[in-house]
Write a structure and sequence with these properties.
Number of domains: 2
Structural class: mainly alpha
Helix content: 55-70%
Distance between the termini: 76 Å
CATH class of the largest domain: Mainly Alpha
CATH topology of the largest domain: Na+/H+ antiporter like fold
Length: about 550
């Protein structure tokens, strides 16, 4: 096929083979992404037959990363990001340091690499793939749970750390030879200031500009233009952030979605970009497969197994242990540990830069790609084993049951909480803008507030309000709120996708419980009624009725 058809032929082969092998993988009860990875191996340069363009495939997969991170930002508020900073920031940094030390020690002491090469190799094994994590969390409906938010926040911190590492790597490669400690410190400070400036611009200017832009496009009534505007915002801001501020395109797209989330068009933007996100995410896995040289499994089996041990055992154990040390329950430790038991896009970017600087030997790339292929293929299987493993451990270990139980004092109501506040009370889930207004309107009625923000719970308790820290979708949190004695469950959260599961659990403890929720669309309202919610108010309709009563009066 002539050169002008390289892109088309690569796309046709990638999508066609991914479809066939993805179906075969599903029939064999394996994750579809195993088929996508095998499709990449078959059209890669290391296997006979048709060879796709690796560089084109990698660039197209980057578009998938941008769109996927944009979608995550649309459903991940600034509040969510701040609420997990206490675990994500120290956890991610310490886990990366531990994994880097394990990988570097392996390369330096066992294989005899130079220290610089060993450090780059270890760092490449320390960072997980955002695409793999998000696909796994979405497939199991964990993305919007407390554990899912912690895992995503953890990866955001890893992305920020990798941005700094990519800036500093040329100094390690000799381009900074003769550089003083002062110039190195200046480079670090400059990088951190650039990232801070980007975040500030997005949260201040972007929060105004993006919704305004989509509003203008929406006024045209063209669905095609709205889809185009959504994709242009995701890709354009990601590339602009990388060019102007030096942050990764993934991080740029994430913050683009984050600032757009609070606009009226967030749900529509997520819906319109979904097909493109799915298609380009497939290309990411195909592109990873194209990098794989199967000969490394025969020529260096011991090195491959050692690399996998760092990714699947060393890094996983370090992450799980850190979560437990930070006094989070066993279920959170298992979810975060399995989430990080793989490597991906940042590992390849780091190795590519290391090779261009002549820092790492050629076999480093083969080992990292082999580790990525196997760990990505195994990750869905590991996720499926989390819950059975948790139940098995809890049934056999009293120590594990203690770890599973929250020992955070804010996760339990104080012993001196008056009984009058725990009989026929209202359980209010969420104390944001709507929850605050609801509590004020209900006046002195007995109430227990459930919120996942420690600062909110601390302030409520200081004011004398009964409040519990935790996820309302977890039985232990509902028990602490004395849901069995409650009259009403008022859910004041923006994302209502977890409401049916939360209500079903609450009614196991209190069958007579009544529930009220605010919906945003007619379809959402009907879905909530079908799930058993007693009172569903549509936000705009309720506002219109209130205004009508004012006028009628």
């Amino acid at each position: 096929m002539h050169d002008g058809m390289t892109l088309i032929s690569t796309l046709a082969a990638a999508f066609g083979l991914a479809l066939v092998l993805g179906l075969l993988a599903q029939w064999a009860r394996l994750p579809a992404l195993v088929g996508y990875l095998l499709a990449g191996v078959l059209i890669g340069p290391h296997t006979p037959g048709f060879v796709g363009d690796v560089h084109l495939a990698q660039q197209l997969s980057e578009v998938g990363v941008m769109l996927l991170m944009f979608g995550v930002g649309l459903h991940f508020s600034v509040h969510d990001l701040v609420s997990v900073k206490g675990i994500a920031l120290p956890g991610a940094l310490v886990q990366m340091a531990a994994a880097t030390a394990m990988g570097a020690g392996l390369a330096y002491w066992w294989w005899g690499w130079e220290l610089g090469a060993a450090l780059v190799f270890g760092l490449a094994l320390s960072v997980a793939s955002t695409v793999v994590l998000l696909r796994a969390l979405e497939a199991r409906e964990l993305l919007h749970t407390g554990n899912g938010r912690i895992a995503v926040g953890w990866l955001v911190v890893e992305d920020l750390a990798m941005v700094l590492a990519l800036v500093l790597l040329p100094l390690l490669g000799g381009r900074g030879e003769g550089a003083s400690g002062g110039s190195l410190a200046l480079t670090i400070v400059t990088t951190l200031l650039a990232v801070a400036a980007f975040v500030a611009v997005m949260l201040v200017a972007g929060r105004r500009l993006l919704p305004w832009l989509l509003w203008q496009v929406n006024r045209t009534g063209s669905r095609e233009l709205f889809t185009l505007a959504t994709v242009a915002a995701a890709v354009g801001l990601a590339v602009g952030a990388a060019a102007l501020f030096g942050v990764s395109v993934a991080l740029g797209a994430f913050f683009a979605g984050l600032v757009l989330r609070e606009s009226a068009f967030s749900e529509r933007a997520a819906h319109e970009s979904l097909p493109l996100r799915d298609a380009f995410a497939v290309l990411f896995f195909v592109a990873v497969g194209m990098l794989f040289d199967p000969r490394v499994l025969v020529e260096q089996p011991g090195a491959v197994l050692a690399t996998l041990a760092v990714i699947l055992i060393g890094k996983t154990f370090a992450a799980g242990a850190l979560v437990l040390l930070l006094r989070y329950p066993l279920s959170t430790a298992l979810t975060v540990a399995v989430s990080l038991a793989q490597i991906g896009e940042f590992s390849f970017i780091l190795l590519g830069l290391g090779q261009s600087l002549n820092l790492v030997p050629p076999q480093a790339a083969s080992l990292v790609v082999a580790g990525a292929i196997v760990s990505i293929a195994l990750n869905p299987l590991l996720f499926s084993g989390v819950e059975p493993l948790r139940r098995w451990v809890l049934s056999r270990s009293g120590w594990a049951r203690k770890l599973e139980a929250r020992d955070d004092p804010l996760a339990e109501l104080p012993a001196d909480t008056p009984q009058s506040a725990l009989a026929g009370q209202v359980v209010l889930v969420g104390h944001g803008t709507l929850g605050t207004a609801l509590r004020a309107e209900l006046g002195g009625r007995p109430m227990v507030v459930i919120d996942r923000d420690r600062d909110v719970v601390e302030k409520l308790r200081a004011s004398g309000q009964a409040a519990v820290l935790g996820e309302a979708g977890e039985a232990m949190t509902l028990v602490q709120a004395h849901i069995a004695q409650a009259a009403w469950l008022l859910i004041a959260v923006a994302d209502v996708r977890g409401v049916p599961a939360m209500l079903a659990l609450a009614r196991q403890l209190n069958p007579a419980l009544r529930c009220a929720v605010v919906a945003h669309t007619r379809e959402e309202a009907q879905w909530l009624r079908d799930a058993g919610v007693n009172e569903v108010l549509r936000a705009q309709q309720a506002l219109a009725q209130a205004l009508a009563r004012v006028v009628a009066a």
